[in-house]
């Protein structure tokens, strides 16, 4: 039996890697990948904690919904990135800073 | 009111000349004004002489409850002076037109001359001491302008400064006299003060106290008042010890010397003394007589040794003014006025003749490029044949100066001498020498004037192409020469008492006695002897000069008894030294103090500048820069980068959690 802490540690590591990717990548696609990392860290948490709900497996169902939503979100995000690229001729989020003061 | 007109016309003329004249045009206006003045003066003289005095005045200004008046007083004294001044100034104007013809600053000359005539005539008709003082100053000022007329000459500039300063010294005396009289009587009106029953005559002197209308002063003040008035007259009439300006004043143009420094301005002092005559007490009269006599004698000895033709005449003027002053001091102002009138004519003529000689010689020297001094009588000689008219008129004037019978000078000089001997007989002590000194002076006068004539007109002729002066210069001289003869003054050529001027001023009868007979005879004989002696020395044989140029007495006289040097050493040098010391004091102490205060202020302001910059400004700037730093810091967050915003958000959430959990 794999103890819960291992799941949580992997999930935390995945989340941190994702967060780091979101913060540091110079490519919007990679940032998107970082976001997927973080979502999946959350999904692992859902799945791990579902062992306390063995009757309804609410955690696993929530995980499935989250995966579907993440897939939909990725589709939207990629569309946005495509449009951003068309407009700015770059997908480096550091260079798209028109909101600055 | 004609008199006012007569006095004011020269001023108008002066202004008109100054305003309208281009070159040489000024002469016409000036002479026309002069003629008009003379006609008016003659009318005034004719209507007023030997009539009751006319006195018109208006209220001038009021201080407190004292009203000062201004007006004209026409009595015998003032109309005589008016007539005399306007007559002589007319002749001198005509003469000047030719003499100054080539001068580029001719309009300025006419203007100054007009100003002088105005002030002089206003002075004689003024009715209050304040007005007289005013015009007295103006006369001094216009004289200053005219002495320095050739202002490119260093000597002329020095001379006019000297004349002005010495006259100012005298003015202090006059002013002090006015103050004493004013504090005693509270009025400066001449009629109120000095008429026969005026305040001065009617204020009693009891037991050392001088009782006036409004108060009383110690009798010493009466003496002081007289003495300071005399001091004022001393400067104007060039009496010892304030005489040194007059010889130097000869730097001015010759017509100016003639009009101002021989005939009119220098007579102002005598005129003033006659005006205030009732003021003088016994002490002052004695002082006046002594000073006058001493001046007459001293100036005559100095005139003996001079070489400059104008200097001789200048010293002679001082000497003759001494006569007049002495006559006043001996209580005979009428003979002083008589001598003033005759002297005005003959001394004016002497100067004009000298001017004619100088004028011709100057032209001659200028033509031949010679640098010989045209005023030095040692360079002259034999002009008798070249300039016969000048010779004749100058000889007449010289005879009048020497006091020969048949001339006006004979009458007036005898009037002075006879009254002097009459006065001297009453004196017991050392003052009884005064008449004899005056007598000796008259002999000296005859000698020096004879020397002048012989040196200039006799002896071998030098210059060939000299000729007579032009007509505008010649005619005034001829007119003046006629005025130097007796008929103008008296029908009887030997009796001065029949002279109308003497009759017009009959203040008190001259105690003639035996002197009346033998004084004129002695003067004439002595004068003749002196002239023959001069002929022996200078005329007959020019090399037989018995006076060497080396003698001590000669040098003493040539240098004017060393008064100039004495004054230089005693007054000028100490004053200059004192001024230097004061200047040093000013520079070191006063300026030092001021500079110290200045630098103190400077350092104070440096301190305050430092405070401002490093404390006040620092606070303000500090606030500014703090907010700027904060602003810059917070601004960094708004960099538009999505990842950065996210990082900030996460960091903020983390911080929040840290706070929540660990604190």
- How much of the sequence of chain A is in beta strands? under 5%
Helix percentage of chain B: over 70%
Q: Walk across the major sheet of chain B and give the strand order.
A: 3-4-5
Largest sheet, strands/sense/barrel of chain A: none
Secondary structure category of chain A = mainly alpha
Q: Return the structural class of chain B.
A: mainly alpha
Low-pLDDT runs of 5+ residues of chain A are: none
H/E element sequence of chain A: HHH
Oligomer: heterodimer
User: What is the succession of H and E elements of chain B?
Assistant: HHEEHHHHHHEEEHHHHHHHHHHHHHHHHH
How many helix segments of chain B? 25
Question: What's the pLDDT, averaged over the residues of chain A?
Answer: 90
What characteristic shape of chain A results from the CA principal axes? elongated
Helix content of chain A: over 70%
Subcellular location (chain B): Endomembrane system; Membrane
Domain NADH-Ubiquinone oxidoreductase (complex I) chain 5 N-terminal (chain B): 60-109
Main location (chain B): membrane
Protein name (chain B): NADH-quinone oxidoreductase subunit L
Task: Describe the protein's architecture and organization.
- The complex is a heterodimer of chains A (101) and B (663).
- Helices cover 73% and strands 0% of the residues of chain A.
- Chain A has a single domain (4-88), classed as Helix Hairpins (Orthogonal Bundle), CATH 1.10.287.
- The N and C termini of chain A lie far apart (55 Å).
- Chain A is elongated and about 50 Å long.
- Chain A has helices at residues 4-24, 28-49, 58-88.
- Chain A contains 3 helices and no strands.
- Chain A has 101 residues and is mostly helical.
- With 663 residues, chain B is mainly alpha-helical.
- Among the domains of chain B are: 281-548, no CATH class; 566-652.
- A 3-stranded antiparallel beta sheet of chain B has the order 3-4-5.
- In chain B, a hairpin with a 4-residue loop joins strand 4 (209-211) and strand 5.
- In chain B, helix 15 crosses helix 18, helix 17 runs antiparallel to helix 19 and helix 17 packs parallel to helix 20 (471-483).
- The mean pLDDT of chain B is 81.
- At the A-B interface, helix 1 of A face helix 25 of B.
